[in-house]
Amino acid sequence: MFSFLKAIQALHARRTRRSAERNRPTPIAMQQSNSLFLNQPLDVLLTISDHLPPEIAAALSLTCKVALAVFKPKNTDANQRAIRHAFEKNVSKRCFYCFTCGKYHRYSKSWVFNSYAAHGVPIPPCQTPRDHVHMIGIWHFAFHHFQLIMNEHIFGEGCGLLQPEFEPNLYYGKVVWRYQPTLAILGGQCFLSVRYWADLDDTPRENASSLFRCPDWNMFCYHFNNNRINVPIGELPIGVYPRRLPELHILYSKWFVNGFKPELEINNYSSQGHCPVCLTDYTFELSRRPLPGPAGREKFRLDIVTYHQLGACRTPDDWKWRAFISKGPESPPGLVTRQQYIDSEHRPGAVKERWDLGHALSHEENHETLKYPTWYSNSHLT
């Protein structure tokens, strides 16, 4: 603000040296004002408006009718974002902006991120199912869920939702599947990591095969899941999603379809992969370990960890978010995918690397002084 006043004073001094500009009449609305700013000639005001950042011009236009008449903010995306950001910052303790209906909805500090009961984070009726993300067990995520968390990070304390606690278990068949999501903000981007793991105490074929059979909504992302058991991955046309993780397909076809034979048993298997559509990386590990009790008994654990980069969550038009919620052939026209951004920043494995780096920084002795990362889940299950 100090530099802004200095600029006005410099322009005022320049005006006094030019008699033509000094004698130029000002609008009637400005003649009775004692404001140095409003008493400037129109050409000076227009010169000022050409050098103002969009957010300052938007703020002046919202608070001053003369500035609104003079500046006439153009209906550009930059100006719309600046006006929305300036307004949302002032009302963020009570409301959030809805990109579906263009209105501001109220929210409550009592909302629980991982609850679908009365205290859960509701989804406004103006939003369509296409705006939601149905994945990770019981949760139905929507854009405004992450938007509210980013508001808390950007606008300050009390301007959004605080850290969610994720500790659900899912029981399916004879196998206990566990899910552990963790949310983080790294470099102004929202990241979500989910760990899926299950254990078996013995190796009957019917029990082991349960590891590869999960409910239809168990999706690692919208493009890879644990289903399509009877559809070989090679028979799915290119671009048809969801499809099973390649590692799951290999294990299921070699281990269970061909019979549970000693020569086909897999003691340890691990790999890494990525989604070609959205910014999702994953790790896959199958390991055997001895069980306490009688000698010779063993169990094996299937451990899958996914890493999702959701973007800055400032607009649902961000290609990172659009790719995350896309559903293959049902995606909107003009969808930008990860395949179009295969560079150093979005290469396969880059999302996991950024997550691991943030995790390492968060455990340093003086990590409180670091700007990033901001961790929202403090649970570390083993």
What brief labels describe this structure?
30% helix; 2 domains; alpha+beta; seven-stranded antiparallel sheet; 12 helices; disordered C terminus; F-box domain-containing protein; 382 residues; three-stranded mixed sheet
Tally of domains: 2
- Major β-sheet, in short? 7 strands, antiparallel
Helix content: 25-40%
Unreliable stretches (pLDDT < 50, length at least 5) are: 19-31, 365-382
Strand content: 15-25%
Quote the distance from N terminus to C terminus: 52 Å
Radius of gyration over all CA atoms, rounded = 28 Å
Order of helices and strands: HHHHHHHEEEEHEEEHEEEHEEEHHE
Number of DSSP strand runs: 14
Q: Per the principal axes of the C-alpha atoms, what is the gross shape?
A: elongated
Helix vs. strand class: alpha+beta
Q: Mean pLDDT, rounded to whole units?
A: 70
| Number of helices, where a helix is a run of at least 4 consecutive DSSP H or I residues | 12
Protein name: F-box domain-containing protein
Organism: Apiospora kogelbergensis
